[in-house]
């Protein structure tokens, strides 16, 4: 009996191992043998080692070369041509990675190309350059409030957590942009708005979901089970540590969005602005729109539109403040273009400033956008990626960090050096390699809004305020873990704030 049982268990196991090593179409690609055997290899670096898969795969590339087999059916490409081939394609997104977010029907979460085209076209008209520029005043109003709030939080020399402050600002901007009403994140003392804090926890929990698909069900739990209808959701929930704390954070984040969406469904007039159609008034009017799609799109917009922009500002402001020569040049350019503080300055003027532009590009380069090895599935048919023939169905991955740290494109890649973007040929040699917004058809849909936000935020913060770094050093930004965006291992950026008087 035991003999039959062991045969039943071990024979398929041995056959699978033998197939993955000797018979699999990826058998010729280099990589650690254990990675070829099991997906648990990646899970170990992602979950047990807490967001270190990217760091480990970077080391594997140093050892094995530009293409590495990092799973039974997965390849990672680190050369810039490989990056472009992966993301310029019309490949589907990798199911295991993206399903974990529970955003299958949102623009960012759709897997299949055909499904994605429908989702993306729903929002296209709100993100054209023309529409974005027409909504500059909506963004500007929130930035004015942001500058005032930095001043009040920093009164009497108190240090301000700029990391949280930027996250609140970008969240209020995207909610004002898409709904005409900011969520009110900037109103919360210390910028400890619950959605901002809980998004961080949720992104960590999602890593575990990637490897335990049963946990996807968690996204369907009605948040009303955990939070009473009149409970104040702007405050952070009582801290619970570890995985349970992160799950609680995710549930809290869901509750926030559920309440927003349920209010809109009960009273669609709330989504309408007196002056314009908003993203949500438009979505509500689409025939057969469901609560589930609204909920997913709202979550995706609030996260995609908030976190990446905030992290770019956070990194950029740190590096500028950390280098007096760069700070001086930027201030001189801004003061020359904008001599009278009380006279407003617009995006069209700011985007013509060459040094400010160089600072923003360098901030995007060193914050990377999404750092994860975002997976795509080759097909239909095989493909040539980074010079290698890859069979249909293979999961192919790369990361913007591979491009941004490539020393042949960006010499001394670790150095924050805006000047590199001012070289006469930078437009041809560097601009095509700025990969923070990704590339190809699934490039960031909010790219026009993101550029406008970055110009206005950098311009206003550096022209209107004198900031000084408080208790934060370059060591705090040396290493990061990969939780979709870079989560730095050091202390968050803190600054003291003094208003500029002229
Ligand atoms: C500095 C700011 C930003 C950066 C660096 C950035 C970066 C990215 C990246 C790397 C992707 C590709 C993700 C993937 O392939 O899975 C993406 C997608 C997306 N981003 Fe952004 N993003 C920024 C700001 C924004 C803003 C302000 C919005 C506005 C809501 C936005 C909306 C989206 C959407 C909807 C997608 C999905 C596009 C698609 O799959 O077709 N992003 N973004």
From TrEMBL:
Cofactor(s) essential for the protein? heme
Signal peptide, first to last residue: none
Keyword Disulfide bond, does the record have it?
Answer: no
Pathway named in the protein's UniProt entry:
Secondary metabolite biosynthesis
Q: Which UniProt keywords apply?
A: Heme, Iron, Metal-binding, Oxidoreductase
Give the Pfam families listed for this entry.
Answer: p450
Residues given in the record as heme binding sites:
444
Q: Does the keyword Transmembrane apply?
A: no
Please give one Gene Ontology molecular function term for this protein: oxidoreductase activity, acting on paired donors, with incorporation or reduction of molecular oxygen
Family affiliation: Belongs to the cytochrome P450 family.
Q: Which PANTHER family match?
A: CYTOCHROME P450, N-ACETYLTRYPTOPHAN 6-HYDROXYLASE IVOC-RELATED
- Protein name according to UniProt: Cytochrome P450
Organism, as annotated: Piloderma croceum (strain F 1598)
